[in-house]
Structures are given as C-alpha cells and as structure tokens.
UniProtKB/TrEMBL annotation:
<dbReference type="InterPro" id="IPR027417">
    <property type="entry name" value="P-loop_NTPase"/>
</dbReference>
<dbReference type="GO" id="GO:0006355">
    <property type="term" value="P:regulation of DNA-templated transcription"/>
</dbReference>
<dbReference type="Pfam" id="PF00072">
    <property type="entry name" value="Response_reg"/>
</dbReference>
<dbReference type="InterPro" id="IPR003593">
    <property type="entry name" value="AAA+_ATPase"/>
</dbReference>
<protein>
    <recommendedName>
        <fullName>DNA-binding transcriptional regulator NtrC</fullName>
    </recommendedName>
</protein>
<dbReference type="GO" id="GO:0005524">
    <property type="term" value="F:ATP binding"/>
</dbReference>
<dbReference type="InterPro" id="IPR010114">
    <property type="entry name" value="Transcript_reg_NtrC"/>
</dbReference>
<keyword id="KW-0804">Transcription</keyword>
<dbReference type="InterPro" id="IPR002078">
    <property type="entry name" value="Sigma_54_int"/>
</dbReference>
<dbReference type="GO" id="GO:0000156">
    <property type="term" value="F:phosphorelay response regulator activity"/>
</dbReference>
<dbReference type="GO" id="GO:0005737">
    <property type="term" value="C:cytoplasm"/>
</dbReference>
<keyword id="KW-0963">Cytoplasm</keyword>
<keyword id="KW-0678">Repressor</keyword>
<keyword id="KW-0547">Nucleotide-binding</keyword>
<dbReference type="InterPro" id="IPR002197">
    <property type="entry name" value="HTH_Fis"/>
</dbReference>
<dbReference type="Pfam" id="PF00158">
    <property type="entry name" value="Sigma54_activat"/>
</dbReference>
<dbReference type="InterPro" id="IPR025943">
    <property type="entry name" value="Sigma_54_int_dom_ATP-bd_2"/>
</dbReference>
C-alpha cells in the first residue's frame, strides 16, 4: 500500500501514534493540530486520504466535511472521535465520511480501513440528509458493543437492504428498526410495525396483505394490510419466528417478486417497502425443526444485526439511567441522580429483562422515592422486592428456576473456578454433549424407547436421533411387551 495520509488531531500523542503506525504500513504521513492547515492541504490537492478528529481547536470536522466533499468529492475521510454516540456515527455518515472510528480505536482496524478506502473505485457519493445537532439520541450507550452497532447502522442508512435483528427481549430491537427508518432515505414514508406473536395465526395473512370485501365472514369492507400501509416506507416484522408456515410462504413470494395479493383478491399489487425483521429466537434451530423456512431466512438475513444484552454492556448502565431520569423529569417527575455505589449495584445485577427492565426500575425510583440522590440501599431494596416477591401463606413452593437460568448459574460457577484464567478449549462441544445426553435420554424415557415418537418429540428426524444415541452412548429403554 502507498499514498499520502493527512492526519488532523489536537492530541499530540494520538498524532504520534498514527504517524508511526501509518509510516510502518508504507504511507507518507503529514500531521497537523488544526483544521485550517488541513483545509489548506486539501485545497491544494494534497493527500490521498484524510484522518481527522471531530473536535478541533479552530473548527468542527462536521463543519469541514461538506467543504471537503464539495472541493474534492473523491477524497475519502475517516473520522475519529471520543464522542462515541449514535448521533456521532450518523452525522459522520451524513457529512460524507468514508468511515467512523470511536476512540480508542484498534490500529490494525484503522490500517485496514485506510487500505480499503484507497483501493475502492471512486464514485458519486450517495445523497445524504443532515439531522440537527441537538436532535435527541434514539440509542444510548458508549460501550464497544454499541459502537459496533452504531457503525453498522450508519452504513445502512442510505440503503434498502433487508435487516434481521437478533436480540433478547428488552434489548431495543424496535428502537433500532425505527432508527434505520428515521435516519434513512425512507424517513419521509410511514413506519409500520406488526408483532407476529400478538396476532392470532389465522389472521396474520389478512393483517399483512389486507383483504377484500366478502373474503371471509365478517369482511364487510375492503381492509388495507400492513404492506399497503407501509408503502414507500419501512415495514417492521417483530417476532418473525412466530409467523405460521402459510404466511411465511406468502412473505417469501413478496420478497422474491415484489408483489402480493390481498386475501380474496385476484390482481397482484406491486410493493415498495423496506423490510426490517426481528426475533429473540434462534431461527437456525427452528429451521432444523421444520418450524421456519430456510429460504425465507436467507431472504431476511441479508444484514444480520445482533443487539447485545445489557449484561454485555454494563458500562452503559449509568448513561442509560441518566437518560431515563431525564425522560422522567420531562414528564413532570422530580429530578434524580445516582451515586457511585448505586451505579455499582445496578452493574452487578443480571438484568434478565435488559434495557426495558432497567427503564422500569428507573421510572419506579423517580416516582416513589423523595430523595434527590438514589443510593445503593434504594437499588437493593427495589431489586430484592422484584426478585423475591412476597408469597401468600397458603401458596405452594417458590417457582423453580428456568433451564436457562440453571445453565447460566452453572456456567458462572464453572468459569469462577478458573479465576482470571479461562477453561480449556472445546467448551462449546463439552456443554452441548452434557445437555444433549439428558435431553435425548429423557425423550426416550418419555416415549418408552419408541425412537419414532422420540424423534418427533425432539423435532429431529429418526436417522439424526439414531446417530446421537450412538455418539452419546445413550442407554436405551426397551418397552415392556
């Protein structure tokens, strides 16, 4: 690789690191601490690529970028910033930046970005829509996990690619879908959401595609479906794994041919919508069980996007809590803040309900406690009340933990045994074997050794079950004759 890289950053240590790393990679590097010098170089036609911080002593990079794009539209600009927010990534993309990297960044990743930018053919940049500087952020968090999400979203804003969002309940899948719509090129069109799990299976096709008068009993007039309502905008299909097979087949045809017919209709209707789907299930497992169409999965999974659970981004909890307290204050509740011990208590919690559970807790704290400062005692009191609800004297035994909770507890204990070290490699296959043996054994026991019934119970074919019995050395239970 070769070329001249123009670096602008007010931090001398960062300039030195970038200079050394880029020079070792074979680039000529010119560094400056202000935007004016950088602009002079660009205006004179110098440099093959620019790396600039957002905050400069004399000018903000977001103000400089439009001038750079107008003067030299083919010059790639990589923006780096310590303001690691969703809106920073979005504004960098809107202003025409080639890439956005949050500080601290990985030097190998930066070198790869530079090489990719210099090797790509130059073309007409896409039309971009600028958003106001003071616009509220739809997504909150500065963790590394969220930075990856922000960067992917920024790249997707000017496309119509289908996105499949994976994430546990409460991680904010609909917020991400709305952000893709509100900051994308379809933002002037409607955003229509439909939750597959909330609609009776026999009504899903009518809800999605609409129906004609007289199509079925009770259809007294024509009713537009969600596809028609979302025309020109975005259709968000939440809990897509709960869609019945018949509707999956019709949805696949829409994605393949770009048209559909209403229930009871005959004429095909062309559609122009962007599809964003979401699920909290492992669809690949459902495919193996015959519950989800593989061809539909690949049509939906053009861009997979995994939202991390809150326990994987605990460093974001303080920012999220402040955000929710601010929302409560705007709704008329008194202002509140957390002390450091309270934040630590929140970060120690498991958060099985993810961000939604945290938001509910913050709203309770804002409404129920008169103190301005929320302490660890307040947090522990609320979390204890939620985790151990009072039971009437006549009630039965406490509810047993779920299989997921039991497995997670076991794994936490297992990892704790190794302290700062890690378990031996091959953990996945060891765990899968430990889980599969009792599962297959229990299924065979429940069906009194009938492999056909056991295979049906497990959702696998008989040959697969036979192989697992052999590989796992499962003791067979023979039926009594």
């Amino acid at each position: 690789m070769s070329g001249t890289i123009l670096v602008a950053d007010d931090d001398g240590a960062i300039r030195t690191v970038l200079n050394q790393a880029l020079s070792r990679a074979g680039f000529d590097v010119r560094c400056t601490s202000n935007a004016a010098t950088l602009w002079n170089w660009i205006d004179q036609g110098d440099g093959d690529l620019v790396i600039t911080d957002v905050i400069m002593p004399d000018e903000n990079a977001f103000e400089l970028l439009p001038r750079v794009k107008k003067r030299r539209p083919d010059l790639p600009v990589v923006v780096i910033s310590a303001q690691n927010t969703f809106m920073t990534a979005i504004r960098a993309s809107e202003r025409g930046a080639y890439e956005y990297l949050p500080k601290p960044f990985d030097l190998k990743e930066l070198i790869n970005v530079v090489g990719r930018a210099l090797n790509e053919p130059r073309g007409k940049p896409p039309e971009r829509v600028n958003h106001a500087e003071g616009e509220p952020m739809p997504l909150v968090g500065r963790s590394a996990a969220m930075q990856d999400i922000y960067r992917v979203l920024a790249r997707l804003m000017q496309t119509d690619l289908t996105v499949l969002i994976h994430g546990e309940s409460g991680t904010g899948k609909e917020l991400v879908a709305r952000a893709l719509h509100d900051y994308g090129k379809r933002r002037k069109g409607p955003f229509v959401a439909i939750n597959m799990a909330a609609i009776p299976k026999e009504l899903i096709e009518a809800e999605l595609f609409g129906y004609e008068k007289g199509a079925f009993t009770g259809a007294t007039s024509r009713h537009p479906g969600r596809f028609e309502q979302a025309e020109g905008g975005t259709l968000f299909l939440d809990e897509i794994g709960d869609m019945p097979m018949e509707a999956q087949t019709r949805l696949l045809r829409v994605l393949q041919e770009g048209e559909y017919t209403t229930v009871g209709g005959r004429s095909p209707i062309r559609t122009n919508v962007r599809i964003v789907a979401a699920t909290n299930r492992d669809l690949r497992q459902w495919i193996s069980q015959g519950l989800f169409r593989e061809d539909l999965y690949f049509r939906l999974n053009v861009v997979p996007l995994r939202l991390p659970p809150l326990r994987e981004r605990k460093e974001d909890i303080a920012d999220l809590a402040r955000h929710f307290f601010t929302q409560c204050e705007s709704e008329g509740l008194p202002a509140k803040r957390l002390d450091n011990d309270a934040v630590a208590a929140l970060q120690a919690h498991r958060w099985s309900g993810n961000v939604r559970e945290l938001e509910n807790l913050i709203r309770r704290l804002a409404a129920l406690y008169p103190e301005d400062v929320i302490t660890r005692a307040h947090i522990e009191h609320e979390l204890d009340d939620q985790s151990t609800p009072a039971q009437p004297a006549s009630s039965g035994p406490a509810q047993a933990e779920t299989l997921q909770e039991s497995v997670e507890r076991h794994l936490n204990d297992y990892f704790a045994e190794f302290g700062a070290s890690l378990p031996p490699p091959g953990l996945y296959h060891r765990i899968m074997r430990d889980v599969e043996y009792p599962l297959v054994s229990a299924a065979l026991a429940a069906t009194r050794g009938n492999q056909i019934k056991a295979a049906e119970l497990l959702g696998v074919n008989r040959n697969t079950l036979r192989k697992k019995i052999r590989d796992l050395d499962v003791r067979m239970i023979r039926p009594v004759r």
